[in-house]
């Protein structure tokens, strides 16, 4: 069934001090999205940047999410770190708690948690990590949406436990035949209109073309694009405009 409404999320605050990733400033991206995934200090971000992005999300009325990653600034959280699931979940809780305090400071509710990069992909295929993460969220944030892929262990376990969950479609990533995104540490420049057409097709037809050249069915409630993808602002704008032109509303998830 065609989607009449979809969330549009993007990673935010992915810098440190005077350093920033990508070519799209957060204040330019914020008006075109409905949910923001804010870096929480391990792969990127710092207290001052977190505070500024949280305040900005409140000003624009954007759904606020924590975007915790591996403790890997040098690799931007896109390298896998061999650690026990308990340690990784503690890292996630630590980072989420930090962002939640800034959210409280500005009177903004925390909407969701979305692991970043390699940690997201690790959880997707690791039932033990996903289980411990979901169990922790059931105690610390049972109302929080957990963002993940439709085919992931994270989604399966969250659904079984009753944790609110949002499935994602990736605008600026390729898919393989399994239904998983093809993980990339660095992205090439993409054609914004082609990306937007891909998203519209996914929303209206529920299908996406894989790197193997065939179509697979895909289910989701949110579309993600990355602020560090070259031309991110043009991509996000094209996706939003083409969705709206095809009758698909942009809105944050709701319970």
UniProtKB/TrEMBL annotation:
It holds the Pfam family LamB_YcsF. GO terms for biological process: carbohydrate metabolic process. It comes from the Bacteria. Signal peptide: none annotated. InterPro entries: Glyco_hydro/deAcase_b/a-brl (IPR011330), LamB/YcsF/PxpA-like (IPR005501). This is 5-oxoprolinase subunit PxpA. It comes from Roseibium aggregatum.
């Amino acid at each position: 069934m065609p989607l009449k409404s979809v969330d549009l999320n993007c990673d935010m605050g992915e810098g440190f001090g005077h350093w920033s990733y990508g070519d799209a400033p957060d204040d330019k991206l914020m008006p075109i999205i409905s949910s923001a995934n804010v870096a929480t200090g391990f792969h990127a971000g710092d207290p001052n940047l977190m505070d500024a992005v949280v305040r900005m999300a409140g000003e624009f009325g954007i759904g606020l999410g924590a975007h915790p990653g591996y403790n890997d600034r040098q690799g931007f959280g896109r390298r896998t770190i061999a650690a026990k699931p308990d340690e990784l979940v503690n890292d996630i809780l630590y980072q989420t708690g930090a962002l939640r305090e800034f959210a409280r400071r500005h009177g903004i509710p925390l909407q969701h948690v979305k692991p970043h990069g390699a940690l997201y992909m690790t959880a997707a295929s690791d039932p033990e990590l996903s289980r411990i993460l979901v169990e922790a969220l059931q105690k610390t944030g049972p109302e929080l949406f957990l963002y993940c892929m439709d085919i992931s262990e994270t989604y399966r376990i969250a659904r079984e436990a009753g944790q609110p969950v949002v499935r994602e479609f990736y605008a600026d990533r390729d898919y393989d035949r399994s239904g998983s995104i093809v993980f990339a540490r660095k992205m090439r420049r993409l054609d914004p209109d082609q990306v937007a057409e891909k998203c519209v097709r996914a929303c209206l037809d529920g299908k996406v073309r894989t790197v193997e050249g065939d179509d697979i069915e895909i289910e989701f409630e949110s579309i993600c694009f990355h602020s560090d993808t070259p031309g991110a602002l043009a991509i996000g704008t094209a996706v939003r405009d083409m969705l709206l032109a095809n009758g698909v509303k942009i809105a944050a998830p709701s319970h």
